[in-house]
């Protein structure tokens, strides 16, 4: 269960987290990895990722534009959806109608779009073509 933190433009989130004694203390048991769009923090469980997110909330508000949870390879979900998954209010398969794509270009969010029900990111070559990386994201129904 990876926690992906997409940084705001002009922010080097990895360096910011390393420079702060408080965040270093919080992240001492984790191995944050720098990626083109921010930081990935590997974690073994969804509950652990949600707990970690609560601990670094101040950094999220200040330096992060989007928080995503990797729930299966190449499938991410929003924070609200992750909370509902953790609370067992829904299953990952329930969210095929509330999916979207986030395109990353030059390390930042370039564009977003909603996907048609039961489609895949390969069905949107025009969207994917202009991006360095495309994330498939599941959203909660409350995020419409």
UniProtKB/TrEMBL annotation:
Domain of life: Archaea
Protein name per Swiss-Prot or TrEMBL: DUF5804 family protein
Source organism of the structure: Methanoplanus endosymbiosus
């Amino acid at each position: 269960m990876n926690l992906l933190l997409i940084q705001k433009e002009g922010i080097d989130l990895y360096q910011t987290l390393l420079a702060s004694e408080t965040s270093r203390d919080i992240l001492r048991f984790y191995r944050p990895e720098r990626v083109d769009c921010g930081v990935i923090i590997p974690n073994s469980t969804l509950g652990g990722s949600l707990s970690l997110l609560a601990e670094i909330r101040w950094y999220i508000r200040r330096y992060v534009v989007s928080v995503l949870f990797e729930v299966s390879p190449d499938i991410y979900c929003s924070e609200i959806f992750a909370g509902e998954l953790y609370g067992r209010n829904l299953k990952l398969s329930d969210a095929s109608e509330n999916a979207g794509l986030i395109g990353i270009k030059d390390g930042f969010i370039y564009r977003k779009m909603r996907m048609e029900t039961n489609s895949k990111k390969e069905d949107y070559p025009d969207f994917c073509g202009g991006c360095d990386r495309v994330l498939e994201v599941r959203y909660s129904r409350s995020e419409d």
